[in-house]
Amino acid sequence: xxxxxxxxxxxxxxxxxxxxxxxxxxxxxxxxxxxxxxxxxxxxxxxxxxxxxxxxxxxxxxxxxxxxxxxxxxxxxxxxxxxxxxxxxxxxxxxxxxxxxxxxxxxxxxxxxxxxxxxxxxxxxxxxxxxxxxxxxxxxxxxxxxxxxxxxxxxxxxxxxxxxxxxxxxxxxxxxxxxxxxxxxxxxxxxxxxxxxxxxxxxxxxxxxxxxxxxxxxxxxxxxxxxxxxxxxxxxxxx
Amino acid sequence: xxxxxxxxxxxxxxxxxxxxxxxxxxxxxxxxxxxxxxxxxxxxxxxxxxxxxxxxxxxxxxxxxxxxxxxxxxxxxxxxxxxxxxxxxxxxxxxxxxxxxxxxxxxxxxxxxxxxxxxxxxxxxxxxxxxxxxxxxxxxxxxxxxxxxxxxxxxxxxxxxxxxxxxxxxxxxxxxxxxxxxxxxxxxxxxxxxxxxxxxxxxxxxxxxxxxxxxxxxxxxxxxxxxxxxxxxxxxxxxxxxxxxxxxxxxxxxxxxxxxxxxxxxx
Amino acid sequence: xxxxxxxxxxxxxxxxxxxxxxxxxxxxxxxxxxxxxxxxxxxxxxxxxxxxxxxxxxxxxxxxxxxxxxxxxxxxxxxxxxxxxxxxxxxxxxxxxxxxxxxxxxxxxxxxxxxxxxxxxxxxxxxxxxxxxxxxxxxxxxxxxxxxxxxxxxxxxxxxxxxxxxxxxxxxxxxxxxxxxxxxxxxxxxxxxxxxxxxxxxxxxxxxxxxxxxxxxxxxxxxxxxxxxxxxxxxxxxxxxxxxxxxxxxxxxxxxxxxxxxxxxxxxxxxxxxxxxxxxxxxxxxxxxxxxxxxxxxxxxxxxxxxxxxxxxxxxxxxxxxxxxxxxxxxxxxxxxxxxxxxxxxxxxxxxxxxxxxxxxxxxxxxxxxxxxxxxxxxxxxxxxxxxxxxxxxxxxxxxxxxxxxxxxxxxxxxxxxxxxxxxxxxxxxxxxxxxxxxxxx
Lengths: 239, 267, 442
What we know:
The structure holds 3 protein chains of 3 kinds. By secondary structure, chain A is mainly α. Helices cover 79% and strands 0% of the residues of chain A. Chain A has helices at 9-42, 45-76, 80-114, 122-146, 149-179, 184-216. The longest helix of chain A has 35 residues, at 80-114. Helices cover 65% and strands 5% of the residues of chain C. In chain C, strands 2-1-3 form a 3-stranded antiparallel beta sheet. Chain C is built from 19 helices and 3 strands. At the B-C interface, α3, β6, α4 and α7 of B face α14 and α15 of C.
């Protein structure tokens, strides 16, 4: 006879609370991604400042989650699925905190880019990219809550698209830089933003991998798609 | 938007009252100095665990709290132990009356070889807590409900208490202890004779019991103390080495001896 | 070397194992031999007792029709009880003689005996038996009633094979002619052996009438004593034991008491008899030979046994029960009365029954207080009479019978032993049953 409830209900309460914290953190990070992209697109400095301030809350939650997980492991000595769950919450929280930092970083550069020449299509491309990543994050968190490995694997696969988009942007920026040297500063900053968004995608993929680990006990067998070939394919930078 | 997240334990601690206050308690058995200058404060509506290696004195100290050490020959207890501010070793205090207020559950389930009903009703009967039969029935039912054994026992109240499984017997013993309307419940390794499922059920029960009683549990399993208690006291060779919030003791204890014991470096 | 030797087969026995197996077989045989010896002793004992004693349960009876002549028994014809009582057994004796004469004629028995000699084969209790029956039912006067009289002990011995024509050569009580007469009567079915309930229920009789002797009164005496022992020894013993086990402080005085109780159990029983004589009879002037005194003496004797077995029963109650009771807030007294004693009760009961069984068979103390040598002829009428009037006890009665000269009494002594053993075995069986039934698994 198996049951989803522990005999000791206090344990269940603690786990539910932790998961709720994590989801709250995830929601805040999604908002941060979207608002950072929006602030860049609409050149809303105030919004950018808000994003930067909100990152502190995200960091606080991560600290609290760390403490709580430590405490539960020390006090309840969880095993099997419970242990994987707790360790995955730690990793997911870490990943979310990094994503949040990237979003904050994006918002920080908004100030800078206001003073630099505008690169056409850059904001819409970046918006598309961040929207893509934000959707992946939402799906990965849904997959986590529902313990849906199919959805998680789908998210992992979509990272490919993000990488392709990033590759495209890379080529674009190189082109712009070669056209007009006055664009270099702006393009470099934009590139950093694009890179950060691409990295956000990688962290989201990591979250999705945790879903598979919690449910099956093993990391997903297919290796992570590495669509970012900019570091190995020299032809990308040549046009 | 600056939220500080307060854990519910911290919230609970600030509003707790102290039920038992022990100050500089010493216990001597003949020539052995078993308890050395122990001071501790047991809060109400909370679970306090005593942990420590074998022979460290945790059971001895527990038995001081309801004067069960009086029944042991050549046992001398000195120091103050106050229950709600009253010294329980004061000559005016009748140990019999004290033990109705401070109930005890033992390591090996020991129901009387009488019916389940008589087991639970014995305490109220000798202390005159029931006015008539229906009153007594009510007390018995409430005690069995609080001990989470009413459903299993209600159709066999006249069956002997010894005919149940180990976990069920222990719950009957818990019901027997709480039938005298105690304020404190002392538990001396209540799960050591039980299998893991029964142990988990008793731990769940202890979690419910703290709503109504101050529970003090001696356990040789520190993991059980970690799961079940809000405060933990670590005893070593008769002294109280560290007493504090369970979470702190198990994640970041102050005393190196505590750390050694908990991490399994000393026995 | 503690490394295992891999090449030793389990199917081959080593020399050491063979030696050990032989030794064990020898030991086994020794045990069986010992049991065999013990059992054969027991078998010999049992068969001897049964063979010698079973005779006592059967007596020879003579069935006669006796004409109860009104002229002899109730001259006035008024059936007045006072007048009837005035006729003593001497008045009834001639009727027996007449009855024999009639039988001889009616059945055509040839004999040279006088009617007096014929009547002599009947027990001397016959006349009293007739008188009792007539007084109980005066309507019998004037009729001819059938009586079953005990044959006298010599005829009885003849039927049982104890008495032969050779052994009675110099005996004044019985003659060969009477034996021949008896043979005829046996053939006719007038004399026959049947079960004698009087042996078990009846009173003892004088030397002259061994056929009439019964152990019934002695049984009552024993019973009275056992009641006294039970009523006194059980409460005192249990109370003393409870004190020593639960309440006594651990000091020199308690040790002293315990040592003395243990020693008392080993004191020879005759010492208790002297004590009884000196204290109960001489100092307190209790009636001599009374079951009350016997009971008091046996109480003193049984007390150490009960104290020791009660203590064992109390010690067997696990301390967890006491802890549980104390933990709930019971006082020491409540713990003892509500929990410890009920659980120790089967053990206490067993010990008491065994103590009683032991006391039942004791003879030596009774010697000194006078219960031996007393002829227990009267059934006590009331309880106080049962306790205070002189009586005997079963073992004493057996001893008394064994002392008497007449071999008929000897047979009765064996019969008494059988009855005593039945009592003892029954009591022991009850004790064993109780112990088995109440054995608790903690």
